[in-house]
Amino acid sequence: MNPNPAFRLRQIRQEIPGRTLLEVPELEFPTGEVSALVGPNGAGKTTLFRILALLDPPFAGALEFRGEPAAFSGPRWLELRRRITLVHQTPFLFRGTVFQNVAFGLRVRGEPQAIWPPRVAEALELVDLGGFQDRFVIALSGGEAQRVAIARALAVQPEVLLLDEPFANVDAGRISRLEALISEINHRLGATVIFSTHNLGQAFRLTSRVVTLVAGKVAEFGHENIFSGAVEGEGAEPWITVRGGWRIRIGPGVSGRVTCSVPPEAIALRPAGGPGASECNCFEGEITRMECHNGRVRLRVDGPVSFRVVLPDQEFQRQGIRLGDRVVVSFTPAAVKILEAKP
Amino acid sequence: MELLGIIWVSLRVSLAATTLAALASVPLGFWIAVREFPGKRVVVVILNTLFSLPTVVVGLLVYGLLSHSGPLGSLKLLYTPAGMTLGQWILATPVITALTYAATKGVDERVRPTALTLGADGWQAGLMVLREARYGLLAAVVAGFGRVISEVGAAIMIGGNIRGYTRTITTAIALETSKGEFQIGLILGVILLAVALSVNLFVHAFLRARP
Fold first, then answer.
1. Could you give the residue ranges of the DSSP H alpha helices within A103-171?
2. Quick one: which of A274, A272, A276 has its CA closest to A325?
3. A7-219 maps to which CATH number?
4. What residues of chain B lie within 8 A of the CB of A81, using their CB?
5. Residue B34 belongs to a domain
6. Contact B195, B173 (CB under 8 A)
7. Which of A134, A257, B11, B63 has the fewest Cβ atoms nearer than 10 Å?
8. Structural domain includes residue B185
9. Is the model's pLDDT at A63 over the cut of 90?
10. Given an 8 Å threshold on Cβ–Cβ distance, is B211 in contact with A86?
């Protein structure tokens, strides 16, 4: 474990005249992990990335990189910048060939020319663009340009890779490949990866470390398995009715129309068809997706009602769950978190 | 042979003036474009105004500077190609500076941060911006050259139109026209255009070799 987080932000504020773009009292990004930055457009994701990439000094506050204060000028600035690389949301490729672009970081670092071709080839292979070296960037499609930009960042083997909306210009067929690439960069190169997206589900598919930004502020941890409906039933265990007429029992003491979430960690799984089906909040479904990350397994269970479930690795191993298995999802009414209640 | 000498003087003086102006003006225009400083707008407006600096006014000013009693009289540059180069340098500088400024401003604003985040130092990032602006920069230098090779005011006042020494194509045209030799004047005009065309073709060939 790395005791020093990749980034630690304290009382960071970024402003342009007359407007505050970002206000982060306290935030950390762990070293060696994938973190996601989620938020709508204009939430301050790019502003935060530009600070983390040391391109814009914050108006106020302190930024630490690996436990030491970050620098925004002087020789230390260059030294730190060479460990952190940002891939812009709409990346700019320099005029010339793909090779010239991908080798750029090696050239400015004064790396010997002999290592450029293998490093460029390796980076291009990672983004499925092997053999593209001699293409002129002007002839690339938008998606290819995006991947060249990622390869260009990978070629310098940064400690931290910042990806600003990497999925924005990627066609649907390539999204899962790019998701796999992000995990691969993290595993194979050991890089800390921070990416932004406005798709919360996507963020959670890749990491459990999700930071939500709303209007320049870090919002409470993003929620999953969100349901809403009118509270029905009197007494100790009222319920709401969700799509398809299914009931989700919730804790007592709420009424009106509620929005609630079921934390993925609070959900238990067991094989379908077994005993013990008498408890409430049981839903059968099929495992359609699973990803292992940091000792935890994220699963997607699709059925009449779909759930995302997080299991500790040990529990996952014990149950011997496989993709395509039919399982029963269950959780207690007390586990349902009420996010909002309107009369 | 006299004609070749005239073309040679024209080319030598104008190319020297353009080169010297480019050496100072390209970095200056770039600096004005990328730095924020008080009065920047005023500087840009003045530069653009100096596009219309009358050549005879420059000729007069430099004449005053270089004449016997002038502050630089001891350099004995009046009626020499070097003196003409100085005058044309003054004419080319604002043109190249202002067009370099425009070319740099026109470069995508992601170039610098992209270079920086890939590990470039300040100089390397600046060079990438210049590299992306290179078509505009060459246009700036070519415009500066066009300004000086075609001007007559400064050349005649500072150079004195001395046959075989400071006579250029334009001063020769002025002389021939005043003598009533319109035909020779016109031929010289065509020659001037041919010279300018050659220089531009050379620049284009250079650009096409490096896409």
1. 104-108, 116-126, 142-155
2. A272
3. 3.40.50.300
4. 116-117, 119
5. yes
6. no
7. A134
8. no
9. yes
10. no
State ipTM: 0.75
A84 forms beta bridges with: A160
* DSSP 8-state secondary structure symbol assigned to residue B141: H
Which pLDDT tens digit goes with each residue over B173-208?
999 999 999 999 999 999 999 999 998 898 888 777
Across the interface, of A50, A95, A156, the residue whose CB is closest to B118 is A156
Interface of A with B (CB under 8 A): 50, 53, 55, 78, 81-82, 84-86, 88, 90-92, 94-96, 104-105, 108-109, 136, 152-153, 156
Shortest Cα–Cα distance, B23 to chain A (Å) = 24
The verdict on residue B189 lying in a domain is no
Domain over A226-342 is classified CATH 2.40.50.100: yes
* CB-CB under 8 Å, A153 with B110: no
Domain limits at B57?
Answer: 2-169
How many domains are contained in chain B? 1
Q: Chain A partners of B114 at a C-beta cutoff of 8 Å?
A: 88, 91-92, 94
* Domain range list for chain A: 7-219, 226-342
Of A17-31, A208-222, A295-309, the least confident: A208-222
Question: Of A81, A94, A152, which has the smallest distance from its Cβ to B116's Cβ?
Answer: A81
Helices (H), chain B: 2-34, 40-49, 55-66, 81-105, 111-117, 122-132, 134-149, 153-159, 169-178, 182-209
